[in-house]
Amino acid sequence: MRRVATHACVLALLCAPALAARYAEPDTGVARLVALGRLWATVKYFHPGVSDANPGDWDTVLLEAIPRVQAARSTEEYAAAVRGMLESLDDSLTRVGEDVPEPAVPNYGFSSVERRGRVLLVTSGPVAGDPLDTATAVREHFGQADAVIFDLRPGAVHPWLWDARWFSNEPLPHPAHRFRLHAGNIPIRGAPDTPFFSGLVTRSAPLSPTTTGASDIRAVFVVRDGHALPLLAAALQDVGRGWIVSEQSIDDRAFARHGYARHYRMSLGENLSAVVRTSEMLHHDGTVGLLADAVSPPDALAVAFDAARKSIPRATRRTARSAYEVKRPELAYGDVAFPSEPLRLLAVFRSWAVFEWLYPYRSLMERDWDAVLEETVPKVMAAHDARAYHLAMAEMIGHVGDTHAVVGSGELNEFWGPAAPALALRPVEGRPVVVAITDPSADLGDVSIGDVVLAVDSQPAESRLATLTRYISASTPQALRRDAVNRLLRGADGSLARIRLLKRDGSEKDTALPRRRDFLARSWAPTPGSAVTVLPENIGYIDLRVLQPHDVDSAFASVQNTSAIIFDMRGYPNNTRSAIAAKLTNRTRIDGATISIPIAFEPGSQTVQSFRSVIELTPSSTPYQGRTVMLIDDRAQSQSEATAQTLRAVHGTRFVGTATAGANGEGSNFAVPGGIQIGMTATAVSKLDGTQLQRIGVTPDIEVRPTIAGIRAGRDEVLERAVQYVRANGKP
């Protein structure tokens, strides 16, 4: 790609009032920007000439193109603006044109063979009968010639007519095929310890079969525009045995039908389309593309006879491209919370592309992702300040439907509120209910466990929750409600949360509680208390939210002789899955879940690389023999869900409670302008039986939902039901 303008020049361009003017109708203007963004992203991810080593270069090209597209008064000016963006690639295959199909390439035979001294002139054209039969007649003349000219200007011949064994007894290497491939999304920190990568991939060059009795004959191929060239022409040119003479400049698109110079056509609207190269021809000397040895429109055939006599020079050197790239992170543009409009649009296009091609659960999205792009573009353009822009980005990612897709920024943290009262809320019977006091020393007045929150800061709770859910991405309805309720009371540090409560006796009470940052931090802390307890009737209880890896041995020593163990997984564990599994079995390994990584190497499609994970164990000499039960609810996600599945596999653990969050897989993230970081699930993980987990969750064998009455009475109804189950069923 040619060197593009410096960032200073770009900033000057973005500020130019003339280019900032909008001449197109609003709907047309948005549609053009959406098309531009899709095209930019397609080139970024799939054009082999866009380097991962300097990602900012292609960003800069977009930032220059946006105001030009916005200023376009007509379809012609719009096309010119897009064409200007693509011209920086120096690639004639990647281009803008009218939305018309490419012409078909005929499959002729060799219609005539003429000897001119020691040179054969073979011309293509329509023939009577089977075109394949004409190859034999041509081959019979080779022994009487030093060179052969194939005049293919009338049209291409059937590919089966070409045989490398006519020209060489040794295997003849053909050019290789190189394309860009992405395996998952590389996180901001890099990829040394992840399965994700991005780079150029080379498909090995094929070799022609060996033979004996081949002719030591030179070959010259004469074409109009390259579409009639056989792949053999490039192979012979590479080894110095073939020449190409063309009436027009040619490139490797001539071999698209052979899998080289693959390209993708996409609509730009207004009867325009763009063609994007997605692969390139790679020669053994490290150069790419295809060049004619001579371009001579008026006397191509005469030049071909000169080439047959070795009296013209070889083709000028093709483009050399490094086979080694250093993948550098995307530019974050995070120095300003409210970046320029072009940078805000870049944020939208970058986000759309990551989830379009590198998101393993793309097929599970409920919203049309293209429609989300079309909705978000005008929102970020209309944003009048940092808050509006950051919320527009959060709303866009909310449509992904992935609890790991957290949109984080300082601006959004202020929107959610960096502080909270010393209360913990949970959705109970569909309502936000006080379930814990996070700081006993806080003055909470008449607030009681089990109070229902009716309003916050004069806004009805349900109205406030509806607003919050617009900006939260969640895999399941239960996870969405959980996260919204967790944010319900948040606000500015030092402010008062004015709360209306529904009390036990049915009365409503208003109270004002101070918000503090440390109160909010404590609401996320693990439940205080011992990780291990022996309940009445010799039932063990292990709180996986508290248990640490170094305490697993002592925990199991405490419950080894109990009749059952109840694992509390209503939260997040501490990487204890394998250590616990080893205490429950004498197996040294178990099959884990199927893990899939999205593979993108061509726009318009996505495939995955899947493998079955294996969990290696150091088994206990005396594995636990009692029954095991696990308490679950929407607070269990990702590692929690993996732990649940593993314990089910090794010990038949039963689940009691409600469905988990339904968000599992290795996480990743990326940055967009404005200091925004966006998370995502980067690998797809199934249940151990191969069925879907994402957006469903681990479902309970025994469903138990807490009640407001139970919360007010201080009961743990889920634990009570688990104990009841153990009593009724005894040891397995």
The average pLDDT score comes to 89
User: What is the CATH class designation of the domain at 109-185 and 197-320?
Assistant: Alpha Beta
Tally the helices.
Answer: 20
Strand order of the largest sheet: 2-3-4-7-8-13
Ranges with pLDDT <50 over ≥5 residues?
Answer: 2-24
Largest beta sheet, briefly?
A: 6 strands, mixed
Annotated CATH architecture of the domain at 109-185 and 197-320: Alpha-Beta Complex
Distance between the termini: 67 Å
The structural class is alpha/beta
State the shape: elongated
Residue fraction in strands: 15-25%
**Secondary structure: number of strands:** 32
The helical percent reads: 25-40%
Q: Overview of this structure, please?
A:
This protein is an alpha/beta fold. Among the domains are: 90 residues, no CATH class; 201 residues, 2-enoyl-CoA Hydratase, Chain A, domain 1 (Alpha-Beta Complex); 102 residues, Roll (Pdz3 Domain). 29% of the residues lie in helices and 23% in strands. The chain contains 20 helices and 32 strands. A 6-stranded mixed sheet has the order 2-3-4-7-8-13, sandwiched between helices. Strands 5, 6, 11, 25, 26 and 31 form a 6-stranded antiparallel sheet that branches. A hairpin with a 3-residue loop joins strand 22 and strand 23. Helix 9 runs antiparallel to helix 10.
Task: Walk me through the topology.
Elements lengths: L6 H8 L2 H4 L5 H21 L8 H17 L3 H13 L7 E4 L10 E8 L2 E7 L8 H6 L7 E5 L24 E8 L13 E7 L14 E6 L7 H8 L3 E5 L16 E7 L2 E6 L1 E4 L4 E2 L5 E2 L4 H9 L10 E2 L20 H17 L11 H14 L3 H13 L8 E2 L1 H7 L6 E6 L2 E7 L14 E5 L2 E2 H9 L7 H11 L8 E7 L5 E7 L2 H7 L8 E4 L3 E5 L8 H8 L4 E5 L8 H6 L6 E12 L6 E10 L10 E6 L6 H13 L2 E4 L9 E6 L3 E6 L2 E2 L16 E2 L4 H5 L4 H13 L3
Parallel strand pairs: 3-4, 4-7, 7-8, 8-13, 23-24, 24-27, 27-28, 28-32
Antiparallel strand pairs: 1-10, 2-3, 5-6, 5-11, 5-25, 9-10, 12-14, 15-30, 16-17, 18-19, 18-20, 20-21, 22-23, 25-26, 25-31, 29-30
